Amino acid sequence: MTSPDALFPDRDIKIKRTGVWPGLFRYLGALMLIGLAVFFAIWQGPGIVDDWMIAQDPVIVEDALITNGECSISRAVFVDCSAHVSYEVKGKEIEKDIELMFLDFGSGDYAVDVVRSEAQPAKATLSLGLGMLWNRTITVAVIVGLLAVFGLALFRSGLIQDRNRRLARRPSRLTPVAVPVTQINKVVGGSVVQYQYGLGKKQQPLLTTSRFRKNEGPLWLGNDGMTALAVLPTNASVPILLDNDLERLDLSASERAEVQARLTPREPA
């Protein structure tokens, strides 16, 4: 193959088709994850805050009535308990719906009492909720935190993706880059190719994907089917994978033929 510096014409070149998905899909995924984080915070947060207050001056309600009490286990460790409790304080009837979520590797039944705050009688919970208070707090904090972090990371990756699409569509000098292809998946109407374009701060591989149409594929370098040719537009951080016929580049027929000839290894004389 010829020198990378002499591979393309000496001018700015536009990439007509990037094969990169719009960032919109990642924004939607980010909103879904952040929405789930908000849901968990609203669902469990107020109850946990109330239970920390109840734990300061707990009083067991001996004559409380518990109805519709049940616990279910999902994924073998997440326990979700709910109950409706009613009790009387100084002649006033108080009713409350209680929902608890925590981690527990056991699967037995739970014996519970109703516990209220002495200072604020309307605040009530189950003794199980107080016993698992740290467990619940950490579990919900971790779930909310992870969902929020992954959501923000997905949103950021969408911004980077859209930026790379914009830069690719502007005519610029293209730098050829050889990239390892890690996976090819068939999808409706074509294929999705995953490739590595560098290493992160912790030396983890940086991966991205490119969508190809039917009867289209990467422009392979060599015959091993492991390394393909990509181009890095000016100021971009992620290279764009080229197709085998170079149709993604805004080249004339003669320029395209010349680039393909430069990519073809010459037989030794």
From TrEMBL:
Q: Give the residue spans that cross the bilayer.
A: 24-43, 133-155
UniProt keyword terms in alphabetical order:
Membrane, Transmembrane, Transmembrane helix
Name of the protein? Uncharacterized protein
